[in-house]
Design brief:
Length: 315
């Protein structure tokens, strides 16, 4: 039986006939119930989304049309406060937009050295090379037990993120151009000067750069306060064609001491953020305040510390 469609796949009659799948006697086989479409819609909007897709969508043809409709997922987004950043450029696929927003995640593999260097490509391995150490300093209510440590010559490591393999197809990236949030934690040793570097590139399908974030290196003088600082940045308005993200970071110590006295890095993050969440871009943040492009504080001023409060370390 065909229906003329109204809002969200509803029939003109406002009802659908749903088979009762509860086990019953043969005398009741084939019994059907009239359920107002508005009631079905309201029920589905209040069920977990994965259950709607995996179970409810398979009940009957009418429910499938309802779940497949753009207006169902648009309404679900509205109710859950998930809206595109640019209202003049709504998603072409509200279903995909909903799930990508809900399942936002870190695209960096092994960000905190828990699996050694798995997932990372070592680009430069100077001095006594990269190593992994236990983290002994607090990181703002985060549990980060390990970190990557650089040596006395430049150490850089890198990850290449394939957006399509991660579930972000070409049409989604080109049409919505979602914000890309970068985060990285870095810390000096208190007894040795060090340098921190980061470069994040948005690449086309041939891996040519479309947009690049590469701030000036951060230098910590000897006797700096040994605290973790966070770098955050948001890449936006980068145009169509982004297919890969290349994340590179590292550094070295600045006094050429044998061993591992260079910058420490950990808990790196790259996230795709398609929804309007009021994110504010900052360049550098630390526990004691912000250090950024508009700040009058320098990194060394923000991280300076009274040497009398630190124990003497032996090499």
């Amino acid at each position: 039986m065909s229906y003329k469609k109204t809002r969200m796949g509803h029939s003109q009659s406002g009802h659908i006939r749903v088979r009762d799948f509860v086990p019953r006697s043969d005398s009741c086989a084939g019994q059907q119930l009239d359920v107002p479409l508005a009631v079905v819609e309201e029920i589905l909007l209040n069920l977990p989304a994965h259950q709607v897709v995996r179970v409810c969508r398979l009940v009957c043809h009418e429910w499938k049309e309802l779940v497949d409709s753009a207006s169902y997922w648009k309404e679900r987004c509205r109710r859950e406060g998930i809206q595109p950043r640019d209202a003049s450029r709504p998603p072409e696929d509200w279903h995909r937009f909903y799930f990508i927003t809900k399942k936002r995640r870190n695209l960096i593999k092994n960000p905190s050295a828990e699996d050694g260097f798995s997932g990372w490509n070592i680009v430069q391995n100077g001095g006594d090379k990269w190593t992994v150490e236990d983290n002994s300093a607090e990181i703002q209510n985060l549990t980060v037990p390990k970190c990557f440590v650089t040596s006395y010559m430049l150490c850089l490591k890198q990850q290449l993120i394939d957006l399509k393999k991660e579930g972000y197809n070409d049409a989604f990236m080109d049409q919505l151009q979602p914000h890309i949030k970068i985060s990285d934690w870095y810390s000096p040793r208190w007894d040795c000067g060090s340098e921190y570097q980061i470069c994040v590139e948005l690449l086309d399908r041939k891996k040519n750069p479309i947009s690049t974030f590469e701030p000036e290196p951060v230098f910590f003088p000897q006797w700096s306060y040994q605290q973790w600082c966070e770098m955050t940045h948001i890449l936006k308005d980068y145009g169509p064609g982004v297919r890969f993200i290349r994340f590179t970071h590292g550094g070295k110590d600045t006094q050429f001491w044998a061993g591992w006295y260079g910058i420490r890095v950990t808990n790196s993050s790259v996230e795709i953020c398609p929804a309007d969440e009021g994110l504010e871009s900052t360049l550098f943040k630390s526990k004691k305040g912000q250090v950024g492009l508009n700040s009058k504080k320098s990194i060394s001023e923000a991280c300076s510390y009274d040497m009398s409060k630190q124990p003497v370390l032996k090499k």
